[in-house]
Amino acid sequence: MPELRIKGMIETSFIDWSEGISSVIFLGGCNFRCPFCHNRELVENKPDGCMEQEWVLNHLKKYKTWVERVTISGGEPTVCNGLGDFLVAIRKIGLSIKLDTNGSKPAMLKELINKCLLDYVAMDIKGPLSNYGKYCGVEVDKGRIEDSIDAIIKSGVGYEFRTTYVPGLHSEDDLYAVAEYLKAKEVKNYKIQWFQPKNTLEPSYMDIKPVSKQTAEHIKKSVGLIFKD
């Protein structure tokens, strides 16, 4: 596992956690190579430009009166050596913790849940499990993805699942297949995110046009109907 490298921090975010304002900490390193990923620097995870853990923790402690939540994002946080210890240090400050994950490390995810280190989990489901590597840029053990999904559902912590719709990579039916899969597991919180051509890991994806507003509304409505039925 790569060492834990803090590659960036947003002091106050109003959009990363629906519960309220949170700080966002970005960890370097990822075991996926999603071509549409817009965090190229985090995936590459070069050793320069890292923030000191002690400074970050002191900053969180200093401002916890105003910001009581922390989102841990990436990259993929669960591939980082020392993640558990880092979350323990955040928990000791008295902050709530949200984890963004691709679900590829169910053992680590379960460990963090069992140690009561997570209050909310947001898991990306890249597309239908039947052809998962197509969306991830690498071969993926689909059993681990399913294991993580089930662990999150049963965990008792807040959660959401989400898929980024990339025109040309995904079809609308791909999203509906994911929605049907989650509905069968009695999931209620599934979100669609819309690809934006920004700093993509695969340069050719910079030429993909974002989905139109009309198409986005149609997809959102159709997904909503799946969960409503």
Question: What do these coordinates show?
Answer:
It is a single chain. It is built from 8 helices and 7 strands. A 7-stranded mixed β-sheet has the order 1-2-3-4-5-6-7, covered by helices on one side. It is 35% helix and 19% strand. It has one domain: TIM Barrel (Alpha-Beta Barrel). It has 229 residues and is α/β, with parallel strands linked by helices. α2 (53-62) runs parallel beside α3 (83-93). The chain has helices at residues 40-44, 53-62, 83-93, 106-114, 133-136, 142-154, 172-184, 213-228, and strands spanning 6-13, 22-27, 69-73, 96-101, 120-124, 158-165, 190-194.
Sum up the structure in keywords:
about 230 residues; 7 strands; about 35% helix
Would you identify the regions where 5 or more consecutive residues have pLDDT less than 50?
Answer: none
Largest sheet geometry: 7 strands, mixed
Helix/strand-derived class? alpha/beta
Number of helices: 8
CATH topology: TIM Barrel
Shape: globular
In percent terms, what proportion of residues is strand? 15-25%
Instruction: Tell me the distance between the termini.
Output: 43 Å
C-alpha Rg (nearest Å)? 17 Å
Strand neighbour order, sheet with most strands: 1-2-3-4-5-6-7
Average of the residue pLDDT scores: 93
Number of domains: 1
What is the H level of CATH, i.e. the homologous superfamily? Aldolase class I
Range of helix content? 25-40%
> What would CATH call the class?
Alpha Beta
Find the count of extended strands (DSSP E, 2+ residues): 7
Gross CATH architecture: Alpha-Beta Barrel
Order of helices and strands: EEHHEHEHEHHEHEH
